[in-house]
Amino acid sequence: MEITGNSAFYAGLGAIQNGQNRFDQAASQVANLSAERAATSQSSDFQAERLRSVDRSQQLDLATASVEQALAAHQVELGAKVAKASDEMLGRIIDTWA
């Protein structure tokens, strides 16, 4: 029996890695939005009034990034379950053949 990189175990590990990357990107986006918001909070009244519409879009982006983080966390969790199930199945197959 040959175990290759195409097995379910490696698919689970790939899902974990992709989920971590997705979470990192969303966290980076949240950090960038927070930094931008802090910079605009020190502007004049005129600039603040003009930027209110931008602030609304940033709130939407912040919500989107938060949802992305939640989805990424689920992706990592499911990837771990796939890897664990594959590992358990491989152990059962080896026990059966031994």
Short description:
It comes from Pseudomonas cremoricolorata. This is Pyrroloquinoline quinone biosynthesis protein PqqE. The chain is mostly helical and 98 residues long.
Structure explained in plain terms:
The structure is a single chain. This protein is mainly alpha-helical and 98 residues long. It has one domain (11-97). The chain is 88% helix and 0% strand. The chain contains two helices and no strands. Helix 1 runs antiparallel to helix 2. The longest helix is centred in the last third of the chain and has 53 residues, at 45-97. It is rod-shaped, with a radius of gyration of 22 Å. The two termini are 12 Å apart.
Helix content: over 70%
Strand fraction band?
A: under 5%
Structural class: mainly alpha
Could you describe the largest sheet, including whether it forms a barrel?
Answer: none
List low-pLDDT spans: none
> How many distinct helices?
2
Question: What's the topology here?
Answer:
Layout: H1 8-40, H2 45-97
Summary keywords:
single chain, 98 residues, mainly alpha, 2 helices, 88% helix
